[in-house]
Amino acid sequence: MKYRTVLLFGAPGSGKGTQGRILGQVPDFFYFSCGDAFRNLRIDDPIGKTFIEYSSRGLLVPDDTTINLWSRNIQASTMDGSFNPTRDTLILDGIPRNPKQAEMLKDVLDVKGLLHLACLDKAKMIERLQRRALRENRLDDANLEVIKKRLDTYDNETKPVVDYYGPKLVHQIDSSEHPVKVLRQILDVVVKL
Ligand code: AP5
Fold first, then answer.
1. Which pTM was predicted?
2. Could you tell me where the DSSP H helices lie in 56-121?
3. Ligand 1, pocket residues at CB < 6 Å
């Protein structure tokens, strides 16, 4: 069975997590953030160590490790009843992160739409991440060089995912606006999917 899926897509700081957590509160939606799944691992978990090694340099974790973690989490959420695949729409944040991951997931995801949270103002996204660094203890927000590397990784490796899914599935969302206005744009799309 394929999971009915909506992808939340965008650069670091574009607001995927902010909007995804809100959508996840709506009945019949299940929100999964790949970054949160990595951060929730224990520090002595081998995948947790791999995550720190890559994310602290602004790099993507290798694909096999990432897809493995994703499958493990989705299976666990299905078993504990928090995710009901026959009823719920899966809201994915941060995965697939490159065309290879999209290919690895093609037999399990029925992608209904990709919401591209776009903010052309890079300085604004950097400022958001630096402000978040003061509130949350994220290694990858702590240093400007790592933030810039994450933005480069997004441009070079992640953005091609938009072309992988193609224009029929892609919806542009202006994420430079206030979060409540971003949410309104997202809901306008999601109700029609
Ligand atoms: P991940 O956790 O996915 O980080 P990211 O993509 O860099 O995204 P962020 O969490 O930084 O930003 P966001 O878009 O969610 O913004 P948020 O809503 O928090 O990945 C971290 C690392 O894990 C990766 O670098 C990689 O190493 C690894 N990884 C994860 N998935 C992977 C995969 N599939 N494959 C390989 N590796 C993977 O908002 C940011 C801040 O801005 C917040 O403080 C928020 O309050 C504020 N904000 C949000 N929206 C607005 C707004 N509209 N106006 C003003 N402020 C706003």
1. 0.95
2. 63-79, 99-104
3. 10, 12-18, 34-35, 38, 54-55, 59-61, 66, 94-95, 97, 101, 128-129, 131-132, 140, 150, 175, 178-179, 182
Largest CA distance in the chain: 43
Phi, psi of 72 (to 5 degrees): -60, -45
Distance CA 2, CA 5 (A): 9
Q: Which two tokens stand for residue 14?
A: 């574009």
Give 54-94 pLDDT, tens digit per residue: 999 999 999 999 999 999 999 999 999 999 999 999 999 99
Question: How far is the C-alpha of 136 from the C-alpha of 129, rounded, in Å?
Answer: 10
Residue 141 CA, ligand 1 centroid: distance in Å: 10
> Measured from the CA of 38, which atom of ligand 1 is nearest?
23
Give SS3 for 32.
Answer: strand
pLDDT of 145-181, one tens digit each?
A: 999 999 999 999 999 999 999 999 999 999 999 999 9
State the Cα–Cα distance between residues 56 and 43, nearest whole angstrom: 14
